[in-house]
Amino acid sequence: QVQVVESGGGLVQAGGSLRLSCLASGLASEIGFNIIAMGWYRQAPGKQRELVATITSGGTTNYADSAKGRFTISIDNGKNTVYLEMNSLKPEDTAVYYCNVRSYYYTLMNNDWGQGSQVTVSS
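^ thats the sequence. predicted structure below, dont judge the formating
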């Protein structure tokens, strides 16, 4: 089983910055485990979960329009860790941010989520 743990959320004023981290562990430490992609999604109160950004193990990125130019996603394959650098934060960025890990262990495909990290941006 893959454990996914986010860290780095918190309260910040509008215009400020935060850095989220997400570590995949457990099965991720075993020979035969490979990450396909990692990403960040968010869910604001009363809204559906939405894509923020994803990155493949090869470094190909995809951003939501709301994140382009302000957020940067990066991956450290050796540490099974993905980061989300968030700058120029706005109150509308307030949400629970979830990390997603798509991977395979030999022929077994996995799609795992973290518990979420609260990000609150005050105006």
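The mean pLDDT is 96.
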